[in-house]
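Limitations
The structure tokens in this dataset are predictions for the assembled complex, not deposited experimental models. Users should treat interface geometry with appropriate caution, especially where small molecules or nucleic acid strands are included. An illustrative entry is reproduced here so readers can see what is and is not provided.
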Amino acid sequence: MEQKIRVLVAKPGLDGHDRGAKVIARALRDAGMEVIYTGLRQTPEQIVSAAIQEDVDVVAMSILSGAHNHLFPRVMELLKEKGVDDVLVIGGGVIPDEDIAGLKAAGIAEVFTPGTPTTATIEFIKNNLKRKA
Amino acid sequence: MEQAVLLAGRVREGDPRATARLISMVEREDPSRLEALKLLHAWGGRAHIIGITGPPGSGKSTLTDKLVAELRARNRRVAVAAIDPSSPFTGGAILGDRIRMNRHATDEGVFIRSLATRGHLGGLSRACSETVRVLDAAGYDDIIIETVGVGQSEVDVVRLADTVVLVSVPGLGDDIQAIKAGVMEIGDVFCVNKADKDGTERVVREIRAMLETAVMNGASTRFSELFSALSTLSGAAHESAPDEGDEEKAAKEHFQQGAAHHVAKQGRDHGELQLPPVLATIAETGQGIAELVDAIKAHEAGLAATGLLALRRRQNLSWELGKAAADSILSILEGEERRVELDEQAAAVLAKKRDFYEALAIIRASLASRS
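Predicted assembly:
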């Protein structure tokens, strides 16, 4: 049986900059993962619905707009509502240090800020999957 | 076992999570999927399976997005299996077809799944046919398979789809491209997308010319088979009155015959020859999409009315069974024990103890004694 790590890379909210998301997507691909990229300006509802249909192991969200304190917890809430509890959710982007604890409390497993080497993200994913891969 | 019953039941109810789970089991060839698939088997065979194929960048995803919207407007539940290539080096993949379609993500009548080829050639993924079966059992009316961007010989989609839409775009090459064998032969409906670009009319003309020539040469194609069956049918149409008392069936037959005439007429409109539709679309703006859906549905109706739908599905299934049998034999050959045997025979051939075909006969005999 072939086990593949499937990752949804999503850009919630209204900022139109997906350079970082694409760099991550590419790095995860090169690490042998299957990366589903949904494009810009996704609502939390769209992200959760895509995560379910694609049956991903990981949801990786990137935000540069400053709306992370609203959008990240909203995605966690919706996942919970739908009974999805086995997906690893991580975040990245321009996120002030003082916000990170709150996001983690909301269920975001880790937050990667600018300058994080992509290898760190890859390692984190491999070591923290909630389902057995 | 109990789990499989539960899972199959939820798929039948159209639960997207269960459907997605089962597709993942299919993708990783989890043996426990077989029990669930078996339970779902009786429910399949109802969906219209539509293949969308064409070269990279021809707009297949955007076109698929628009087809989904149009089919939803016609009250159909739609599933999409969108295939993108895996890296042959790392096994990773970027599945980007959703970028064009994710506005449908929250519509409960739509299910979209991205599939990586995982080393499979031919334009589909290995798991594609089982995935289609799952989606079919989950009750989607239309299942769209969007192939990887194809070159000239990735034609596997004809083995799975009832109706194949071949997407071209202006500016890809000269008219020789249209007469080469392979991918251009598999279309049931032809679509020239990005029709706002220069050269659209020329591509439409070249495709029509290619199709006309095929008819004049008497080439046996998917569409010539359909048209000859349709003309037989329209000859016999007035002789058989449908059963009274079975209104639904009568209405369906009426619709199918209407559509069959529509297909036949479309063909006749281009000179006296019957040709499949060649439509110009601009997926970006939605131009030509309603006509494309009409053509796709008319094709399905034609297949159903002539009995070709059942025939083709049987032929396809028989092909798939053959392939699965070949794969299972291959997996025996790839086992350690057989490797040794193959290696011994190779040594014997090189040592001139026997020739290649004698060695082959020995291997075949040993395989036969095994099964």
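Some entries come with short summary sentences. For this one: Chain B touches chain A through 34 residues (CB under 8 Å).
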